[in-house]
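Lab notebook, bench 4. The sequencing result for the construct came back, and we need a structural model before the next group meeting so we can plan mutations. Quick request posted to the team channel:

Model the 3D structure of this chain.
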Amino acid sequence: MVSTTIEERPAGIFAPRHRALTIGMVALITLAAFEYMAVATAMPVVAGELDGHALYGLAFSGALAAGVVATVLGGRWGDLGGPVAPLWTGVTVFAAGLILAGAAPTMDLFVAGRFVQGFGAGMLQVAMYVLVSRVYPAELHPRVFSVFATAWVVPSMVGPVITGVVVENVGWRWVFYGVAVILLPAALLLWRGLASAPMSEQPPAPARSPILRRLGWALLVAAGAALMQYGGAARGAGFALLVVGLVVLGAALPRLLPPGTLRAARGLPSVISLRGIVSGAVIGGEAFLPLMLNEERGLSLTMAGLVLTGGALSWSFGSWVVGRRRFERVPLLRLGSLLITLGLVLMALTVFAVVPIAAAFLGEIVLGLGMGLVYPTLSVLVLELSPPGEEGENSASLGVAESVYTVVSVAVAGALLAALGTLGAVYLLCFALVAALAATGIVVAGRVKA
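Done. Here's the predicted structure in token form:
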């Protein structure tokens, strides 16, 4: 008698054992993405009503700074005690920030609410990475992260429109109250999902530097990023703030990332470095594309903003593709980085009047496709390359690199525009810089394997 064994395939991410958890996490990511998109749309009205134009930038940089600190704290907490406690802390703090911002009678309290939101969102995101590593089999990680990436698409497309309707007809406060209300059923799904999805045992976390020391470095990184953000947007003393912020980041950032990340050492450091590179290049290019199309090519801001929609759709498609089957990682990451570079080049060419504006639409689609191939793949790799008990800290490094590289990219481009003026040649220089950054990703992609 010959016995045969059939390899059991892991249940899908929407199978009964995972369905509630998957939907709950996707709902939370969608709400966080919607809040991120909505704030930018509602802020002019908020600042006008609360007489807070002087604190306008702090409403954004404060949330960013809090997110960096929370990511570092949440990552280590997840490694030491598992993802559940930091996950619920993130949900609770995020909800509290929404309510505080919505009820704020002054701009000071609104900024405080934004700070609390950023802290909750940062902890929530890194806890989800640890949760994925504990609940889903490794074979399902690509599908999980492809769905996470897709969860940003709908808010990117409809968030500003919905926000505009709410602000005009109900009031800006309901932008925050509404998200807080919808957060309740999402949290309920998450609670049910955690109860039905078995979690693997927590391995012992290795000894690391004291958490208070890491938090100190995180605060310095957040401060440096905020200084660069202000410096990139300010005139006069802006350049000095930019330089000081860069110096602070140069001293503090290496303390929060795996050794060799800034020089793209082979293995995990290159994975984290590549996440920062592509994020900085993409957001650095998209930050000024609508403004350039409006000022240089005469498009309305609404039409110029619609250009970004094509990128959101192709990003979703690229994420879906990498979630359907396994690809060789290095060629895939090189292809994605190349597509991002080409997309930025096409956007840059639309500075010239002889180039059809359609090139910007095409460039955004190409760029989005490249990001869809790269982004979830790097999320999968950071878990694959993390020893047991280090998933949280390495996922935190991924988030920190993404935030900091993006701030540096946008700040440098903003400083050039502030110093030299919004001229065609200056826009071309800004796009050349972010395209060159994206091109380095093609090289770094070859170093993700040790």
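Confidence is low (pLDDT under 50) at residues 1-7.
Will bring this to the meeting.
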